[in-house]
Amino acid sequence: MMLNRFWRTIVAAFSLCLAPLPGLQLAFDLPFDLLADPSDEPEQGWMKLEELLLLDPLPDLMEGEERSAERMTSSPETGHSPTPMIAPSPSPSPVPTPTPTPTPTPTPTPTAPLLPTTLQPDETDHQTIPYQEIIPVVLEGPGWIFAGAREGGTVTLEDRLSTGSTTIFQFALPAPGTYTLFFQQQNPYDGTMRIKELILEITPPSTPRGLTTPLASPGPTPVSTPAPLSTPASPLPSPTLREALALIDRGAYDQALDTLQTLLSASPDDTLPIRAQLFRLGTLTRTPDLIARHVEAASLLSPPVLLDALTLLLDTHTYPPIPSILETLDQAPLTPAQREDLLYYRARYYEEAPPHRIEDAYDLYRRILETYPLTQRRKEILSRMRHLERHYLYVR
């Protein structure tokens, strides 16, 4: 029995060593049952060759067995059969790494811009302006830009206009108080920067608006409201004219017109006072033709009446009598507010009436903004200037 087991081991070793040679493999592929002892029983502890080889195969024997199995599966008789894939052993599942909790970033507190606080101004100016919704700032010279304010977001730049010789800014301020504004201007030749600090003292709106400096008196009544009208410079020639003036004061304009026309036809010599009252009646009744027929008497009327007549004539596009009224107002003593009105009406006349003196109108609009920076017509004037620039002056 020991001898049979020895020969069986020798034959199995030769079979594995000669496995790469197909012919020799068949020669030594002997049935192990012929060498087995019939008295061998599996239960006596003896293992078959297959079980013996599975215990601890040598590396070279295992490689030979793999090559032999590969040749046998790819032999011409059987054809190629796929080598069964050995399922990989499952890898251990990775231990989940705890995700770190993100630390919330603190929200920065809004602060005022740092630029104005670091500027070193070349000059400092102080201005006191009564409060209004839009505060204008006029700087001499072109090319100024707004650099910021110490108050941060409390100052809002609404508009900026460069007129060639000046730069005009419009700011919206929340309330009266003290505001520090910074402006920059760069020299285009050497690149140097000029910094200006402007301290605005915004007072409550107790002073009259529309003027550069406060006046000692409240000033004249605005043109848009009824103003007391003057009487002719010369004494009234007859009681009938006095009656016509009384009718005008009471608002009986139709009766006053009939009375004045009767007096005009009955007094061919001295008609200038009567014509002046007809001119005045034309402004009250909004009749531009009546003003145009009696414009020669404009010198006898007060500036408020003449300025009201200019408004009516421009709105109705009745241009022929306007030059005579403008000439009369040039010789009359006017308040600063009336001077501003005169510049405005003249600029409108140059813009609207033929032959349309566009450049002269533009210069007058700019002069108003420079001379009267607190004018209530600012938005309207800026709109007209942009219209002229877009359609006439800077057309490409």
UniProtKB/TrEMBL annotation:
- Bias (Pro residues) occurs at 85-113
Q: Where is this region: Disordered?
A: 64-124, 204-236
Signal peptide coordinates: 1-27
Compositional bias segments (type: Polar residues):
71-81
Q: Which UniProt keywords apply?
A: Signal
**Organism's domain of life?**
Bacteria
- Please give the name of this protein: Tetratricopeptide repeat protein
Q: Which organism is it from?
A: Winmispira thermophila (strain ATCC 700085 / DSM 6578 / Z-1203)
